[in-house]
Amino acid sequence: MKVTFPHMGSFYVGMKALFEALDIEVIVPPPITKKTMNLGNVHGPESACLPLKINLGNFLESIEKGADTVVMAGGHGPCRFGYYAQVHREILKDLGYDINVIVIEQPRTGRQEFFRSIKANFPNKSWYAILSAVFHGWQKIKMLDELEEIILRNRAFEVESGAHSKFWKKAVRLIDQTNDKELMKKLFGDLKQEVEDIPKKWNREVLHIAIVGEIYLLLEPSANHNVEEKLGNLGVSITRTEYVSDYISENVFKTKNTGGHELFASRYLKNKIGGHGYHTVANAVKYARKGYDGIIQIMPFTCTPEIVSMSILNEISEKEDIPILSLIFDEHSGEAGVDTRIEAFVDLIRRKQRIADANPNLTTRENLSLEGV
């Protein structure tokens, strides 16, 4: 068995660790390129969202390298993610590939159901091996998420341009290469200290923007044209509202309390709408009330939950008095267009603040109208 899986940010490090701990050969998908996009676009359904097409490209490139088994998460609810595995299975079959597609369904009752699902798909592995492997992969995912959260928050303050990006590549490589439990613990402590020690200019005036939206587009830089890094270089301290570790804690291990989402979203949205749409609304309200300077929504074209959320974000922008930008991505999205929009949004917020300082009684809407936007 040679296993592959979708490429989504640094998530591959945890997945690779899990399967290698089970003595299963892993074919990590190559970094996402134009070729990946083209493969998914040519062979995927025209109306499918960007993540489905990129994942298909991942699988085809991994199959070229010898993969014979695809492992994917399942899902339920209005989001079409729950259908991805079956669509991929049928496409690969039509292309003549005899590939085993394993679907690890999102548990409805708790972690025991998740572990039983893994055991059912890998029956020759002991319970001890499965539990140990999952914990091993989980530790790497948490470490990388914590480091990335620090990077996104602090990149705007760095003295040497690119210092945090350079550190991130190093951190991913070292955590990927380290498997001993004690060495991992020491490595994480050293890396955390190293990222905190990167020289910063703390008195620099920066903007604080929260990024909300569909989780795949949030986590995969090649799919969103490196929006987070570019914002950091524009002097924006970023709070990303979705991480893989959060998703696993909430939906797999059932250990994360998400009651706060209802508290913030209830005024604007009464029911769950699938995907991360409910989170998008809740987090937009949450960070508006925390005093953030702006919100950016990132979403795939045709994503139903995020389309619903986007319509509500207009109301949130007005009532919570905060600028909100929605960025929609598909295989035709150009980097130059994305750059222009985020640069204009950052400039708009800075001008808004200058006008607000001179006219403290203006609301955001009145403020923006003065700018002719």
From TrEMBL:
Matches recorded under Gene3D superfamilies: 3.40.50.11900
InterPro entries: Dehydratase_Activator_Redct (IPR051805), FldB/FldC_alpha/beta (IPR010327)
Descriptive protein name: CoA protein activase
Protein's organism: Desulfuribacillus stibiiarsenatis
